């Protein structure tokens, strides 16, 4: 139970605060990523300025876009499976909100402190596959169906290296609790020196690279955007969606990018923590209360860094062909991550 | 594995462009606020010098999509020298170019034997109403003010051709 909230707040107030916090933790990264990276960084990488008219430097462009989408007609194709067609974007967005529930943002600033957090995180991240598949199926459109099937094949293929990459971290940390993984990194030491803690990006570098590639594929960002290939599939499973439902898909895409960056920074970059040796902390209870404010900011910084890398890769590379994409997952990422697990396990026992 | 240096180089290209755009500015122009000077001989709009037109209809007949409309009548003008007979001149009643149809091929400008049609670099004449893109001879005449001076001949260009 959170010390900040537990004191004397009734249960419904806590729940309300958690819901609000969850909405902020999902929408703030999504907005920041869309404006800073999708609008501005992509434009600058193409030697143009991007949106400049709405607000100073186009900073209000997000609101203009949302307003535009809300005005559009909500079209459902005649032959579509109406109920399923309408809930599909919400399933995808729900998976994002379920994901953020286990991410710790500070010593006491978390939504749930779940013992099997990593397991839960990997499980609910697959729910979005379900949303994408039913979106592709229920649209009654050949492009959507092809896009949905490609998405399902790709997301299942890249789910596996992602799980296997995280196992290395779990073995090293000895816990599946995300809060525990943060603690293990920040209280750890490298060869008896604890000035940096022990962020797993150093020891699990292979795992980190595999995890980021798998995240890129899970988000269907560009080198892996076969499912939404707009030049051949007219945006794949999103073809028939318009207005608010398309906006939901759009928000889910970038919110998930933000949440996966949160999770990657928890697993590999030390999460909300600073190395505990800096301030003489020894365990979670001795961490000062101000970390509940600074922690989320540190998390946000790390999230922006990782999202920058995701978007940078997205804007730089052309698209994989379908067979290359599958071969890369099964013949390169899975074997490498299996070897990574073995080496990690052997070193864990030996050292 | 051998592909990795190329992948990193690709990331470097985008990052360098990002840096260059942030430091030196973009290659693009923020259109309504600043405008690029159109290049020499830019084909913006066709201007009509009405006095030169003899309504010979060459431009109308050569237009590939038939977007020029000419109507005229003959008038008698006073003789040049005293005692001569009155001259017959063609007066334009109507000279319209429908820019909704025009494809800016410039054949009418090329074909005009009396230098009545000119290219002007002006391009900002879009209209909310499609029918307003039909420019009549008054409007076409107004474009004459925007026609630039003909560029000087290239060195040696005068020697070519018959005298």
Automatic annotation (TrEMBL), chain A:
GO terms for cellular component: membrane. It is a multi-pass membrane protein. GO terms for molecular function: NADH dehydrogenase activity. The chain crosses the membrane at residues 20-39, 87-106, 118-137, 158-181, 201-219, 246-273, 293-316, 328-347. GO terms for biological process: aerobic respiration. Signal peptide: none annotated. Its main location: membrane. The keyword Chaperone does not apply. It is found in: Membrane. Pfam families: NADHdh. Keywords: Membrane, Transmembrane, Transmembrane helix. InterPro entries: NADH_UbQ_OxRdtase_su1/FPO. This is Unannotated protein. It comes from freshwater metagenome.
From TrEMBL, chain B:
GO terms for cellular component: membrane. Residues 44-73, 93-122 form the 4Fe-4S ferredoxin-type domain. InterPro entries: 4Fe4S_Fe-S-bd (IPR017896), 4Fe4S_Fe_S_CS (IPR017900), NADH_quinone_OxRdtase_chainI (IPR010226). GO terms for molecular function: 4 iron, 4 sulfur cluster binding; metal ion binding; oxidoreductase activity, acting on NAD(P)H; quinone binding. Pfam families: Fer4_7. Keywords: 4Fe-4S, Cell membrane, Iron, Iron-sulfur, Membrane, Metal-binding, NAD, Quinone, Repeat, Translocase, Ubiquinone. This is Unannotated protein. It comes from freshwater metagenome.
